[in-house]
Amino acid sequence: MLGKAALAMWWDVAPELRVEFEHWHAHEHFQERLGIPGFRRASRWTSAEGGEGFFVMYELENYEILASAPYAARLNAPSPWSTRMMPHHRNMVRSQCRVLESHGAVTARHAMTIRLSPAAGRAGSLQRAVGDLARSVWMRPGLVGLHLLRHEAPPLAATTEQRIRGNGDRVADCVLVACAYDAPALRALGEGELADSALVTLGAVPGSERHLYGLAYSATPPDVG
User: What global pTM score does this model have?
Assistant: First the structure.
């Protein structure tokens, strides 16, 4: 990953708003976010399971960016277009994360996200096990990367954007992001070494939530500057 922190988000958008949402998100929102110091890459992924969901991730220089003055200023001064679109982010999950493990690439054609929580007293063993797995996974045929993120709320008061969304954002404790150029290889990983039962053995609480996505758009600051 580009940096030591990430902002990982999931939400749904109604079909009748999808065209406008994607236009706004690509041509205004990404430009705004990538103009903030410390934002290094933005990626948007669409559901590969026939749903209305999106996965969006911003890779950040460091964790402190999530409470920085330029970022807070942008969150508290949304544009008119953003103000109109924000209420339509349904079922929002928004995790401000430190990057615990990162091996290989991020922006491949396919991605699987797994939202999970470590069992009591097993956060360290889960991280070590994922790190060991990631060091081999990213070089397997069809796969290119595996990354582990951990949510940590920054010292930032509720923002205008959150209020527009009804202050209903949820968070994921930990996030696994597996990236691949081959969808069957990614599914096999999700049904094997990253299956819920396997993650429980590694130190996770049962009941992880997983989704498959396809890359729609990715940009870095020079792309939109």
Answer: 0.96
The residue with tokens 């994921």 is 172
Q: Which parts of the chain fold into alpha helices (H)?
A: 18-24, 30-34, 69-75, 80-85, 123-137, 160-164, 183-191, 196-202, 221-224
- What's the pLDDT tens digit per position in 188-219? 999 999 999 999 999 999 999 999 999 999 99
Phi-psi region of 82 (alpha: psi -120 to 50; beta: other; left: phi over 0): alpha
Contact 98, 5 (CB under 8 A): yes
Q: What is the pLDDT of residues 80-124, one digit of tens each?
A: 999 999 999 999 999 999 999 999 999 999 999 999 999 999 999
What is the C-alpha separation between 136 and 183, in angstroms, rounded? Answer: 18
The Cβ of residue 73 has, within 10 Å, a number of other Cβ atoms equal to: 11
The one-letter amino acid code at 158 reads A
- Lookup: tokens for 118: 């470590």
Tokens coding 10: 């999931």
Q: How far apart are CA 100 and CA 136, in angstroms?
A: 16
Query: Are 44 and 217 a contacting pair, CB within 8 Å?
Result: yes
Per-position b or e across 19-29, b if 16+ CB within 10 A of its CB:
eebbebbbeeb
DSSP for 158-201, please give it: --HHHHHTTS--B--SEEEEEEES-HHHHHHHHHTTTSHHHHHH
Closest CA to 107 of 56, 72, 164, 35: 56
Long-range contacts (CB closer than 8 Å, 24 or more residues apart) made by 25-31: 25/56, 25/85, 26/217, 28/79, 28/81, 28/82, 29/82, 30/217, 30/219, 30/224, 31/224
